[in-house]
Every structure is written in C-alpha cells, then in structure tokens.
Amino acid sequence: MPRVVVGLSGGVDSSVVAYLLKSQGYDVIGVFMRNWHDASATLETECPWIDDSQDAMLVAQSLDIPFQVIDFSVEYQKRIVDYMFSEYAKGRTPNPDVLCNREIKFDVFLQTAKRLGADFLATGHYCRKQTTAENGTTQHHLLTGLDANKDQSYFLCQISQAQLAMALFPIGHLQKSEVRQIAEEQGLITANKKDSQGLCFVGKIKLPTFLQQQLKTKKGAVVEIPADSSIFHKNTAQVEELAKPYTFQASLGKVIGEHQGAHFYTVGQRKGLSIGGTKEPLFVLHTDTQENIVYVGEGEHHAGLYRIALQIEEPHFMDGTSTMAVGESLPFDVRIRYRQALEQAQLMRTEAGYFLLFEKPQRGIASGQFAAWYNNDELIGSAVIC
After folding, report:
1. Which residues is 32 bridged to in the sheet?
2. CA–CA gap between residue 119 and residue 3 (Å, rounded)
3. Cβ(293)–Cβ(312) under 8 Å?
4. pLDDT score for 276
5. Which residues are paired to 296 by β-bridges?
6. Which domain CATH number covers 116?
7. 3-state class of 154 per DSSP?
8. DSSP-based three-state secondary structure for 99
9. Catalytic residue numbers?
10. Which residue segment(s) compose the domain that 152 sits in?
C-alpha cells in the first residue's frame, strides 16, 4: 500500500485530497505545516493558523488518519521571509508562494515526508501531473487544473523533475464546486470554509506592517510623470532595447506628495498612495529605493504602466533538460502573475541573455516577479523577471 503525506492546511481542498487518497487505498498521513509564529502582521480574522491547525486535526480525526503538526518556521524565515525583505529593499516584487513551493513544500516538507516513509507528497493545488515514458526515460509533465478559475500551476513553475516525481495533485481534474460537494457529502468540517489568502500556510498579512518589521519608514517624494513623457517612446525593433526599463528621473515630473518608504510600494500599485485631486486614480510606475522616490502616473492606461518586452534570468525548464541556443526564438503563452490571462509571446535568447517579446504591451510588470510559459495546457518553464 503506497504511503502518502498530505499537507493538510485546514482548508477544504487539502481535506478532500486526504479523503480521496484514503478512499483510493493509500496509507495517508496528514501533516500541518507551521511556518509562522509572529501574529503581529497577520489579519487574524482572515486566516489564523491556530484555527486552521485545529480544523486540519478535526479532518484527520474524521477520516481516521494519523496527524501531526510540524514546525518549519526556521526554514521558512531563512528561505522565504528573509528573501522577501531583501527583494522589497531592492525595489523588487517577490512572489513568496512560488518560492514556498520550491523551497518549503517540495523541499523541506518533502524531505520530512520521506523520513515518514512516504512514497508521495500530496497537496490541494488545482493542477495535474502527467507521466510519460519514452526510450527508457520517464518524464513528468505539469498541466493546468481543469477549473480555469482556480488553476494554480503558476505557483509550481519552479519545481524540479525530482520534486514533481513525488507529487500528487488529486483534485486537479475537479471544479471547485465539485470539491466542496465532496466535502459536504463526507461531512468534513471544512466544506464551506472560506478560501485562505496570503502567504503560503501563513495567511493574509498586512504587508506594510510586515515589511516594517525590518524595513524602516523613510519619508520621500512622490513624483508624477506625464503619460506623454519622451522616456516611454522607443523607436526600435531590438528586443534588448525594448526590454530595458524606463529611465525615471525626478526632473521629468512634479512632486505631488510624500510617501513613507519607496520599498513599501510596487509597480502597478493603486492603493496606499493617499493622494487625491486627480481625475483618474494614480498608479505606481517605478520605485527608486536608492533615491527613495516613488514615481506615479494618472490612469490605468498610462504609458508608463506598459511594456512590450522584458529580460529574464536563466530559465528553469520543467523537464530539466531543455536549453536554448543563441538566436533561437520559441512561441509560448505567458503569464507574469497568478490568474493573469495567458498572453502570446516569443521566448528569445540573444547574446545579451533571455527575453520575452509580447504581441501586446503588458501592464504592471515588476522585476522580481516570475514569468511562466505554457504550451497549450502544459507548463514548460519559468524565470525571474530582471
């Protein structure tokens, strides 16, 4: 009987995962990951970890499976939280959930599952795995979830073949409504529980409060840049030039307000500026953490919010073997954030590095985010945006 460790989060998705696997004959062990101790920045009414762990325990009791709480807070602090502080301090926008899957769930947690004798690690992600064998080589493919509104393959865009080999995604073929129906039919306490939001196994946080634990407030200028500024016009077809970030300077605009620290803001952000008097809302165009200036533009169609190309770091290909030659270009469907619609683009490699050239300008691209590319319903690879 194969043994599987299920990451029981206290939500309906992982609860149904545990039920389905047990009903299929697996030897199931439920584990709640405690990644966080400090509740000072957590919105307690949204996703308190104590309530979640209790719900996970009650689900395990209902299903008559072993259950334990394991503390990964030290590893989480080093690999995720410290990374977040470092990225925001540099004016970049990290995605901790992508890193949590690569560094915690499918690394630290996976190693724990192995020590518990597990053959597999199962999660409640809405995605699918397909395994093929050709010429004696086994290949694991990550596919999108069939519920288009819940597909979470993007969050797994950085895991490896070895990690994917031990992964199970039992609800990836289901709709969310079907998952809740199963939970109700089985009398699981989480059947109608609201979906959690925020950091992986931590909950929804007040980001400014969270960042102020290490990043101090520092007053600076908010500078508005007009949409017709010359910096937004690039008369070139060279992807290397198109991908270069706009060069913002305070002299190009006017000071319209004050902020508490450029590192607290991200490109595309609308809320939190607390500046009125404009016909349309203001959006963050750029943050300069060295000079402590936040650049903004009026309206969601402001030219400074859009880019047609971007440079990325060394790509991570899901198959673990793919490479690109200099001069090669491949068409893919790309997203740069969770739940963003897929956009057509060319993945290119030039002498200067790797680039994505989109068919249409993309809004709110921030360095530090992950770009993930797909071929139909298969996630092919990903990379950090420079």
Report:
1. 69
2. 5
3. no
4. 85
5. 224, 284
6. 3.40.50.620
7. helix
8. helix
9. 100, 200
10. 3-211
